[in-house]
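Table S2 (continued). Query chain:
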Amino acid sequence: MTSTKTLREWLGEAPFALGMSSGFFGFFAHCGVLTVLEEEGLLPARVAGSSAGALVTGSWAAGIGAEALAEELLRLRREDFWDPSPGLGLLAGRLFRARLKALLPIDDLAKTRVPAAISVYDVARRRVRVLTSGPIAPALHASCAVPFMFHPVLHAGGVLIDGGVRDRPGLAGLADAERVLFHHLASRSPWRRRGSEALAIPRRAGLVPLVIDDLPRVGPFKLHEGARAFDVARRGARAALDRPI
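Corresponding output:
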């Protein structure tokens, strides 16, 4: 049964955690949602994510305001991160890592303004790991290391790749959270089979999913769609605040 309580009311009544899913270049949409929460003063008490979700939640937790992060993302050009190099992936990731290090005001996950959990996939151990301490830039780099696009990342005693490989929702770090707002990016990725469990919207007590329809798909050759994804997500998030959950 649908509650008569709006999302705005639910978020304002007690501390909540924010989870954001992976979804290739979905960080534009994630950032659009986060700017609305920040403008409304509805700030999470803790955050978690995989890949695009980790990039946005981790950067925000490190002290970058949502609007400042949006400005950084909307300036992004392919040459800012495009560094092809032989290896287990097209891109070395050195430019991406350098950009992260220049952007982040701190570099210790244990010192973020709210607790942050970054999901990565450990290739050797064949399992998801949740990083909550240590250097932020390599953790975010690893969580965003899309297989075959980026080289794997050597960090935290492992060979790490995109957290969305096995934790697409990015919620592994919020298993104990009682109240979670979860921004779910619907995927149109060609390597996800239709009906895959990874694409299902998680359902559990205390979790409120936010799904915004008609987001354009953004990629390294479609960065021009980032601004539209950001705007669509902003409008969708603002409208969702006053709808019953």
